[in-house]
Design goal:
Layout (H helix, E strand, L loop, with lengths): L2 H28 L7 H26 L2 H6 L8 E6 L5 E5 L14 E4 L2 E8 L1
Antiparallel strand pairs: 1-2, 1-4, 3-4
């Protein structure tokens, strides 16, 4: 799943939880606020559950922020990878589909290819 799709699904989940929380809060305003009222307690627990869901979705959304996506980019099968040699500093471009050892690596990782070490400098 693409990171942008994950972001959009998380945003939709936050919106859904927020609407559910708003309806529960409107029911709470109408209910009798006492701790002996089981309906009131049930509404409070549901509101707490939706509030916790919203906070966890927001923390996951921060992980997938647009700026940190570039830093945590992972090599996928269809991506172009910019490799920089650690010995001589030469730069080469490689298709990740041709090299299985690149799949799943991130920016800054070192890879041993063709008996020399390369550092991943870019993923496109």
């Amino acid at each position: 799943m693409n990171a942008y799709k994950v972001r959009s699904t998380l945003i939709n989940l936050i919106k859904n939880e927020q609407t559910k929380l708003n309806t529960i809060e409107s029911k709470l305003k109408k209910a009798n606020p006492s701790f002996s009222n089981p309906i009131f307690l049930k509404l409070l627990s549901q509101a707490s559950l939706h509030n916790n869901n919203i906070s966890t979705y927001k923390t996951h959304l921060k992980k997938f922020s647009k700026r940190s996506l570039v830093k945590r980019a992972i090599v996928q099968a269809g991506s172009q990878v910019k490799l920089v040699s650690t010995k001589i500093g030469a730069t080469i471009w490689v298709d990740a589909t041709n090299y299985a050892e690149l799949l799943g690596k991130q920016l800054g990782d070192t890879v041993l290819m063709h008996n020399s070490t390369f550092k991943i400098a870019g993923i496109y």
